[in-house]
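Hi all, long-time lurker, first post. I run a small reading group and we've been trying to get comfortable going from sequence to structure in the token notation. Rather than ask abstract questions, I figured I'd post a concrete chain and ask someone more experienced to write out its structure so we can walk through it together at our next meeting. Sequence below, copied exactly:
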Amino acid sequence: MKKPLNMSDVADLTRRIQSDPKYTNDILTLLDLLTDHVTTDHVTLLAAISALQSIFKDILQNQWMFEGVIELEQHEDPVTTYRRWMKETYEEVYSGICHLLQHPSSAIRERSFRVLLSFLRAETLFVKPSPSHTRSLLSGVFLSADESLMGLLQEQVDGVDWKYAWLKACEGFCKEHRNTPRVAPHVCTFLRSISIAECFEPIETPTEASKTMFHVKKVFNSVWVEFLKMEKPVELYHEILSSLNTDIIPYMGNPKLLIDFLVDSYDIGGVTSLLALNSLFILITKFNLDYPSFYAKLYRMLSPDLYHCSYTARFIKMLETFLKSPLLPAYLVASFIKKLSRDLLQAPSHVTLMIMKLITNLIKLHPSTKRLLHRGKNHAPADSDPFDPNEKDPAKTHAIDSSLWEIEILLQHFCPDVTQTAGTLRKPTDNVLIGLNLHKDYASLYKEYVKMWSKDPPLEFNQPKTFDASPYSHVFSF
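-- Answer (accepted) --
Happy to help. Here is the structure in token form:
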């Protein structure tokens, strides 16, 4: 039985390979250690990885070894055969070390990553870099789910050329692993670590670097489109939607590529639709996206359940933005005002305050809807309200012919702030918009009222010097 190699044997093999090319075949012995990494002890495996790094660093510097495409010929000279064999061996070594990124030992994973990175840098300096190598390294890190490797990878995204290489590799990875949701958080973290703000700086004289910047912006578009097609955990899906308009769209050369993703998200309903709203509205207003059913779907989102989620304040703020345009028809704005008024009757107190202030602002922005207020005292809510709360199309609700009788009910609300705001809403005195107080919640309302109502309890001025216990002697023993 052949004796297993140890650290000393690996060192001897390395010296022999580097001293005389006739011992090059010994590389295969070191390669076998990578293949049998399960049975090889960790110290020897680390030594073999370092040895292969040292050997191929020298080989990569001999640029003639990897020049051009070396194809198998029927009658080739020994030098060509040697070069072709060396390239094939290098590919095997690179692939073998990539597999070690999944090794149970964190020391071996980290060492493998650093060696692979040194190979990539050497390729960049001495030979034509291989895109497949960048992709293999990236895939190994993502699939390993090792946070320390992710941290090391994020440190290597400086420089326009490297950013292009990483983004291109990530695009290919996303296409291959579209149905692997467990890797999506790692891909997202990595993509967020790559800043391309420098690519948008003005350029006076075109250079090779400026050409690369153009390609970086182009691949930035495609890699995000491919990533958004991947299966993702719901939490990550919502996180991406909430930051799409600030972190991604401003740096995309063609944000219209996100249309399918945003429209599909908007059609899902619930919180997902709510989070897709802002980015979709940006595409409509700034990039001329034709989406006629935007307001109809927005209207269908209004429901009492919506006012009990963590995104309520954000949604109310977005509603104000979406309905601010003076070009919107009065019947459309009236439908939203009336539906919001009806929802007020079932909303929490702090949300009721926000919505009433929103309604006040909408009436000020669209004076033709004031007729809803003027009819408030004349309509009998149960009998003659023409508004149809079950109608899904805001153009058919007949809200413009209705009134805001719900505000009259809120004048009897238990919360003083609600009754005060309802009174202000009935008689708006100017056209100045009011703040929505989006940060108020039940806790802040409670503290506010406790502070308002709490007073020091009355205390006896003269402190007693003695205590007469006789009246209580039959109950207590003092």
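A couple of things your group might point at:
The chain has a mean pLDDT of 82.
The first helix runs from residue 7 to 19.
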